[in-house]
Amino acid sequence: MELIKKNSGKKGFTLVEIIVVLVVLAILAAFIIPTMLGFVADAKGKAYIAEAREVYVAAQAVATEYSGLLQMTDSDPYEWYGLTNCLGSTKIATRRDYDLKDPKTDPVIIRDYYTPRVQSSLQMYRYLGNDITISKLDPMNAANITKLSAGESAWTVTVGTDPDRHDTKTAKVTKVVYYKNHYKVTIEENSATVEKY
User: Fold this and answer.
1) Whose CA is closest to 123, among 47, 60, 52, 188?
2) Residue 8 included in any domain
3) Mind listing the pLDDT tens digit for each residue in 37-59?
4) Which of 31, 79, 87, 114 can bridge 75 by disulfide, Cβ–Cβ 3.0-4.6 Å?
């Protein structure tokens, strides 16, 4: 009984004091949480810029190597023999399966495997395949961009400086547009921009 009498004299927090503390914490959280989410978004954007630069460097290496071959011109994304077409993620993802089959026994692969267009796509895959999960979806079709699975990447590469000339052999990668996890990274003329879509 004496213990109860001793404790009853001690004063605790009132309900009003507890509510005031909770309101102050809520106000602080309202300022801090969006800031922290912005830091996370910035970090993701910077990570995707690094991946897009990796694609840019690989594309430039392959373009330099393969532009000297007779068939390989800068071209546009839809021209069959052009570097622009062969260095995009769609062709790389489609042609990576060629390495899994025996080129000496499969009739389709016998016809295509040793062509510069297939070899350039395979070289890009060798450079990037261990680091980036490449989607087979065509990023030239805007509807496909929203269908990318989590962690999958897609990109387009532009080779050449004159979009109206498809027979040039500059071997200069002028633009990479990279898509991953609802982020779009554009690398052009030594600058990178990131936007969320």
Assistant:
1) 60
2) no
3) 777 778 888 999 999 999 999 99
4) 79
